[in-house]
Amino acid sequence: MATEITTADSQDYKFNPLNFGSLHFTVKASNDAHIALTATADNKPPKYEIFLGGWGNTKSSIRKNNEEPDKVIVDTPKILNNGEARGFWIKWGGGFIGVGKQGEEKPFMSWQDEESLNVLFYGVRSGWGSTGVWTIEDNIYINTEDSKEFIFRAILHGSISFSVDSANDAHIVLATKDKESEPMVEVLLGGWKNTASAIRYNKQTPDKVHVDTPQLLCKDTPKKFVIFWRDGVIEVFSEKTKLFEWKDSSPFIISHYGVRTCWGAVGNWHIHGAADDQFKSKIVATPKPKPLKGKAPPAASPGWNLDGPSSGPVHWVHASNGQIPPNALPGGFDATNEQLYVARAEHNGALIPGKLVPSHGVVYIPWGGIENPKENYEVLCNCNGTWVKANNGEIPVGALSSGHTEDGEPLFVGRGEHNGSLTVGKVQPSHSVCYVPYGGEEVPLNDYEVLVVV
Predict the structure, then answer these.
(1) CB atoms < 10 A from the CB of 67, how many?
(2) DSSP secondary structure of 343-388
(3) Rounded to whole angstroms, how far apart are CA atoms 407 and 155?
(4) Are 51 and 61 in contact (CB under 8 A)?
(5) Residues 6+ positions from 199 with CB-CB distance below 8 Å
(6) Confidence (pLDDT) at 297
(7) Tell me: the pLDDT tens digits for 83-142?
(8) Dist CA 394 CA 409 (whole Å)
(9) Bridge partners of 345?
(10) What would the DSSP string read from start to end of 92-106?
(11) Cβ(185)–Cβ(174) below 8 Å
């Protein structure tokens, strides 16, 4: 069962352990539903706090370590309701934290921290005249009868990790709604009297994939599985072994999953949440570093230097219109041999690494199939790093998390050769490529280098 928590009108958090980089929950409250994400089971830094429906149920915010002003404050009139349970999700990783509404993929509130906190516990509380009734949806237990009906839940992870004990026929459906409706993908585990497993699309036969899996399930012993999806590719793992995969030529956004047991079987399900990191991206060992270099010398002009510190920890410096802060990191060179610098900029709710071209007065970031010019941006400074070769979505150990997609996926700084240039862009692990902005387009590269901090 999901975790049920009742909170009084109090300043005290009720803490529970976390196993994943996300939290899904519903809350019924008139105002001021607060969530703390911490390293220990008490209300002490380091921590994040998310305030939902504060200021008389008119605003929401993100705060770090009890410090004001809040990192983010957004208008959210009537976001909470004392008579109705409202659903939300919180995701974090690589310094990014995003807050969204159940059933919506994009966060309505997010912030990029310069450091990444080790979040091991969550706490909830209500106050300022409000009480709360909470249902924490991760770590769910579901019992299924011998039935053809699926039990549905919302999911926004891009993967699902679960255990199930059943004699045969443990079925999972991935769908766009909380009911069976096209398009949908079914994963049939331990079918045909626990001898085979399959992937089926829109209930159509023949199956898209059909493999022998003798004795995959067990009536009295939970067996662990992971299903992972990205860009239409569905991968199914038993423990750490891949059972099978299938690519949908017309991928759709998966927002719900359903589980059932049938053909004489009943099941006990434990939905753990998102998959482990090993299923999200390929991690490779870092080879011997090589110096950062480019074919062109650092440019004094075009572009102009900002006054400011010339040494210190790695940080992102705000700049605009071609400005180059002190100790800006050269990342490559253009086809004209102009020095390019590592930078990033916001776009449509995302924070995206790209290339600063001083003579153009902008940073170009790859997004939506095109290169997008940004006059306001941040430049990476004081970075003692190396470039490490990688390919097909690999992220070397020590890679610098430098942004996020609009859905909260961490992005990394990458670069690659294209049309006589060495161009800086973003590595997006779920897409298995490095995207670089060039010639008005977002160019995908399978072979690239990733910036690693040493």
Answers:
(1) 9
(2) EEEEETTEEEEEEEEGGGTEEEEEETTEEEEESEEEEEES--EEEE
(3) 13
(4) yes
(5) 185, 186, 187, 188, 207, 208, 209, 234, 236, 244, 246
(6) 36
(7) 999 989 888 776 788 898 876 767 899 888 877 787 888 999 999 999 999 988 766 778
(8) 15
(9) 352
(10) EETTEEEEEETT-SS
(11) yes
Which pLDDT band holds residue 156 (cuts at 50, 70, 90)? low
> Is beta strand 86-93 parallel, antiparallel or unpaired with respect to 22-29?
antiparallel
Residues 6+ apart with CB under 8 A from 254: 155, 158, 174, 175, 176, 185, 229
SS3 call for 289: coil
HSE-up of residue 330 (Cα within 13 Å, Cβ side): 17
Structure tokens belonging to residue 394? 């690999």
Kindly report, residue by residue over 381-437, the tens digit of the pLDDT.
888 778 888 888 888 877 888 888 887 788 999 999 999 899 999 999 889 899 999
Rounded to 5°, angle at Cα 194 from 188 and 196: 55
Q: What would the two tokens of residue 48 be?
A: 């994040």
Instruction: Give the DSSP letter of residue 454.
Output: -
Structure tokens, 283: 């991690």
Between residues 278 and 159, the one the model is more confident about: 159
Cα-Cα-Cα-Cα dihedral of 36, 41, 45, 51, to 10°?
A: 10
Helix-strand-coil percent breakdown of the chain, rounded to 5? 5, 55, 40
C-beta of residue 152 within 8 angstroms of C-beta of residue 222: no
Q: How far is CA 2 from the centre of its chain?
A: 23
